[in-house]
Structures are given as C-alpha cells and as structure tokens.
C-alpha cells in the first residue's frame, strides 16, 4: 500500500514525464507516510475530454488519488498532498495551458482489502 492513481488530460500526454512523477510519488509516500517502497503502486489514466469550469479548452487536468491503510495523521496526509502539488510542475514539461491539479487521500478498509502477487 498505497495504491496511487493519476488522471491526466490527454493534452499533457507528450510533455508529462509520468515515470519520473510516479517514482517521485513513491518516494514521497515512503518519506511522509512511512509506506514501504515495494508496496507503492502508481497507475496513470489518460482522460480524453476533461471539462474544467465553463471553458473546456483553457485548462488541463491532473488529479492524484492515494488510497492508503488508516493510521496516518491528518497532518501527515496534508503534508503529502502539499508535497505532491509542489512536485508536479517539475514533471509537466512545456505546456500552453494552465493545469488544474488536485490531490485526494482516502483510507482503505483494512478488513476488506486483499492483494497478492500472482506467480506465472
């Protein structure tokens, strides 16, 4: 844990260094919420037609969601959110539009979550 999802606008596809950002997200999770490095998993999803506000052509979008086991303080979660937003611009590259960025951190129900590695 954590499971990390990053939704991003299609218009960022060519300039967004997703691999480097994913590695940075894993590092931040280890540093700020005591995640184990090998348990950090990041998935990127390209969003074809995001609409932000009333002008769909102005903004690009990046939305990062962390799903973590409970037990982290609100202060640790807030520090993680702030660090993610601070890290993001370094990975966006050149862009012609402003980026609406947000981070959400959710606790997973530890009693119901299951995960495994499936061997070949």
How would you describe the overall organization of this protein?
With 120 residues, this protein is α/β, with parallel strands linked by helices. The chain has a single domain, classed as Macrophage Migration Inhibitory Factor. It is 28% helix and 27% strand. The protein has 3 helices and 4 strands, in the order E-H-E-E-H-H-E. A 4-stranded mixed sheet has the order 2-1-3-4, covered by helices on one side. The radius of gyration is 15 Å and the shape is globular. The two termini are 22 Å apart. 22% of the residues are buried. The model has no long low-confidence stretch (mean pLDDT 93). This is 5-carboxymethyl-2-hydroxymuconate Delta-isomerase. InterPro entries: 5-COMe_2-OHmuconate_Isoase (IPR004220), Tautomerase/MIF_sf (IPR014347).
For the secondary structure, the number of strands is 4
Secondary-structure element pattern, one letter each: EHEEHHE
Regions with little confidence, pLDDT below 50 for 5+ residues: none
Order of strands in the sheet with most strands: 2-1-3-4
Proportion of helical residues: 25-40%
Q: How much of the sequence is in beta strands?
A: 25-35%
Cα Rg: 15 Å
Q: CATH class, anyone?
A: Alpha Beta
Q: Main beta sheet, described?
A: 4 strands, mixed
Please identify, by name, the CATH architecture: 2-Layer Sandwich
Span from first to last CA?
A: 22 Å
Structural class: alpha/beta
And the CATH topology?
Answer: Macrophage Migration Inhibitory Factor
Our count of helices gives 3
Question: Could you name the CATH homologous superfamily?
Answer: Macrophage Migration Inhibitory Factor
Q: Please tell me the overall pLDDT.
A: 93
């Amino acid at each position: 844990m954590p499971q990390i999802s990053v939704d991003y606008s299609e218009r960022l596809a060519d300039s967004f260094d997703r691999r480097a950002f994913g590695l940075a997200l894993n590092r931040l999770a280890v540093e700020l919420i005591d995640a184990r490095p090998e348990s950090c998993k990041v998935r990127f999803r390209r969003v074809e037609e995001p609409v932000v506000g009333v002008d769909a052509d102005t903004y690009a979008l990046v939305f990062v969601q962390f799903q973590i086991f409970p037990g982290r303080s609100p202060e640790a979660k807030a520090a993680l959110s702030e660090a993610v937003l601070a890290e993001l611009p370094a990975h966006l590259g050149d862009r012609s539009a402003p980026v609406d960025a947000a981070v959400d951190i959710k606790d997973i129900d530890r009693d119901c979550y299951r995960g495994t590695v499936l061997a070949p």
